[in-house]
């Protein structure tokens, strides 16, 4: 039972492929590729199949022709009552004319067949043979069991959800009568067809699948080898593509890592530079915001009276400490308040007399004055 189901499914797939545009494209594409190959390679890789036609003549005889032919040597004429052995010998003789395999085709008279054009719902494609058998008594004067038929899908319309197809119908009795002499000769046919007005095959096959000649084991083996080669090449192409993409991704990742490391290094250098600039600016601001020691010393030298002598001058973090002796130590606060370089001068501790110099010892605490934002040095005092 499973084998029967699989056989029907494979037969349906073969029928769909035979009537598909994919097969026509692949046939055209294969022919174009084959034309590019050298003749020796083409003979090895491309399967050539000639055709042996058995056709009933109008005068009652038989004509057996090999196509493509080269003249009278590729044609055998037999009488209508020819013995089966003669027909077989004629076919064998024509087959030996070339090493290329030839399909054996029985040609029927067009006057004994019906050619119909039908339009069916797209859903009928899955069971097209059954649908056509059901439609047979409506489209022809025959019942399904009285005819042999085949079809070709002409067009699919997904929008209208319809398929257009041509159907060839021949009476079963007529087909069986034409088959009898060939079968008596022990010949296995590949197809039963009719000819177009131009003399070419129509592309139908009225021969039931179970009566068709089987392909040789060599052909099957070659097909499997080619199929395996196609799969191997496809897998190789995909693997190569994936490998190349992975390598490209690894290369890009390495470049990104290098750029990221460089960015980190540059960021670290920028941070160090900012810290160095900030430190330099801090020192510069501190330097510019407080008076220079030599300027302060010059200002005190010019500002303090002659009877005053400094013993110690200390400048630490903006704190200025002045220690010395003077004849009028208390008057020094007023003098120092006029200085543009210090502010808030004040005596620290008591003023004590100096017995040695007969002057007063003093200690004054002040703050260094912060300079203006313009950074201009204060002008030294004149008195």
Topology, element by element:
Elements: H1 2-18, H2 21-36, H3 39-45, E1 49-56, E2 62-67, E3 75-78, H4 84-95, E4 101-107, E5 114-121, H5 128-139, E6 147-157, E7 162-171, H6 172-184, E8 191-193, H7 217-289, H8 293-303, E9 308-316, E10 319-326, H9 332-337, E11 342-347, E12 352-354, E13 359-368
Parallel strand pairs: 1-4, 4-8
Antiparallel strand pairs: 1-2, 2-3, 5-7, 6-7, 9-10, 10-13, 11-13, 12-13
List keywords for this structure.
383 residues; Nucleotidyltransferase, domain 5; 5-stranded mixed beta sheet; 5-stranded antiparallel beta sheet; 9 helices; 13 strands; disordered C terminus
Structure description:
With 383 residues, the chain is of the alpha+beta class. The strands form three sheets. The chain has a five-stranded mixed sheet, covered by helices on one side.
What is the level-2 CATH architecture name of the largest domain?
A: 2-Layer Sandwich
Radius of gyration: 57 Å
Distance between the termini: 129 Å
Mean pLDDT: 80
Short description:
This protein is an alpha+beta fold. The protein contains nine helices and 13 strands.
């Amino acid at each position: 039972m499973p084998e029967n189901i699989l056989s029907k499914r494979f037969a349906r797939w073969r029928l769909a492929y035979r009537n598909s545009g994919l097969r026509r494209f692949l046939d055209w594409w294969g022919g174009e590729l084959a034309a590019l190959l050298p003749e020796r390679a083409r003979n090895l890789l491309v399967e050539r199949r000639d055709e042996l036609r058995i056709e009933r003549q109008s005068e009652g005889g038989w004509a057996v022709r090999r196509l493509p032919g080269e003249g009278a040597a590729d044609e055998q004429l037999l009488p209508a009552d020819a013995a089966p052995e003669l027909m077989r010998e004629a076919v064998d003789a024509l087959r030996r004319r070339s090493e290329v395999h030839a399909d054996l085709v029985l040609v029927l008279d067009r006057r004994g067949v019906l050619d119909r054009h039908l339009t069916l719902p797209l859903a009928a494609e899955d069971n097209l043979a059954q649908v056509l058998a059901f439609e047979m008594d409506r489209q022809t004067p025959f019942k399904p069991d009285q005819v042999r038929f085949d079809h070709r899908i002409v067009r699919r319309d997904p929008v209208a959800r319809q398929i257009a197809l041509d159907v060839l119908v021949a009476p079963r009795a007529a087909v069986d009568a034409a088959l009898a002499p060939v079968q008596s000769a022990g010949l296995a046919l590949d197809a039963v067809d009719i000819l177009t007005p131009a003399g070419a095959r129509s592309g139908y096959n009225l021969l039931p699948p179970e009566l068709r000649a089987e392909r040789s084991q060599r052909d099957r083996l070659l097909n499997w080898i080619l199929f395996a080669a196609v799969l191997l090449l496809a897998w190789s192409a995909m693997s190569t593509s994936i490998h190349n993409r992975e390598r490209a991704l690894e290369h890009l990742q390495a470049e990104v890592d290098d750029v990221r490391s460089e960015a980190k290094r540059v960021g670290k250098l920028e941070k160090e530079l900012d810290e160095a600039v900030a430190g330099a600016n801090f020192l510069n601001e501190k330097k510019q915001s407080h008076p220079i020691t030599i300027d302060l010393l010059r200002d005190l030298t010019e500002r303090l009276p002659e009877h005053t002598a400094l013993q110690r001058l200390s400048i630490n973090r903006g704190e200025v400490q002045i220690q010395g002796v003077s004849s009028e130590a208390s008057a020094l606060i007023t003098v120092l308040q006029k200085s543009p370089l210090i502010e808030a001068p004040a005596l620290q501790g008591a003023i004590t007399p100096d017995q040695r110099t007969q002057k007063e010892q003093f200690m004054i605490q002040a703050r260094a004055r912060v300079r203006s934002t313009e950074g201009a040095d204060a002008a030294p005092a004149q008195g």
